[in-house]
Structures are given as C-alpha cells and as structure tokens.
C-alpha cells in the first residue's frame, strides 16, 4: 500500500517558479516510475514528466527546457522544479506512482499562473 502526499502548489506570476514535491509512504521497493500529470479545466489529464528509479526521465514537449523532474530514492520523494511558468501551465498537478502491480495517484495540488 502506497500513499502519495503532494506539496508545493500555489499561485505565481508568469515567469515565476514553483517546486512541487511528492512523498510516497508505505512499502516501496524495487523498480518503479514516479511522475507528474496535470489537468486543466476542460482538458484531459496529461503527462508532464516522469522518472524511473534508475533516473531515466521523460518530459512533455510543452515543458522541456522549463521543468525538471528529480527524485530522492532514499526518501521516496519526487520533485518537479517548474521555471518560466506560463498561464497555460495552470492546472491541478497529480503525482503518480507505478511499481510492480501498484498504480497510485495523489489527490492533486493546484498550480495557478497569473498573466
């Protein structure tokens, strides 16, 4: 059983930065993938970035060069550093954990970028 606790969302002006964090609690072992997804009003949920326990990363084209995903395996925590934020980045951001037979989602954290 894994529970995901997200933090770091908030309100920021265009061009600003935020850092999201997601801590996976419970029994976590073996290879896994942790990632960030987002869902804006009226749009479907989309992948922002993910990272494997081995450090392999994957980014949406729209955030490449602006966002960086990292993880601390010892603390079972994944981060998303978001720079040069744009109003179109406004969405609820969800953390996701996949490992073995497990697939868990966090409850989401709101990110709002003002123009």
């Amino acid at each position: 059983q894994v529970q995901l606790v997200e933090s770091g969302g908030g309100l920021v002006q265009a061009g600003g930065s935020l850092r999201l964090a997601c801590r996976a609690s419970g029994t976590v072992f073996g290879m896994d993938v942790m990632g960030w997804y987002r869902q804006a009003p009226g749009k479907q949920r989309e992948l922002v970035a993910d990272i494997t326990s081995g450090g392999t990363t994957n980014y949406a084209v729209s955030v490449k060069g602006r966002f960086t995903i990292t993880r601390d395996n010892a603390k079972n925590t994944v981060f998303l550093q978001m720079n040069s934020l744009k109003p179109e980045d406004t969405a609820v951001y969800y953390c996701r954990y996949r490992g073995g037979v497990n697939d868990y989602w966090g409850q989401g954290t709101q990110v709002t970028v003002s123009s």
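The two ends are 40 Å apart (CA to CA). The chain has no helices and eleven strands.
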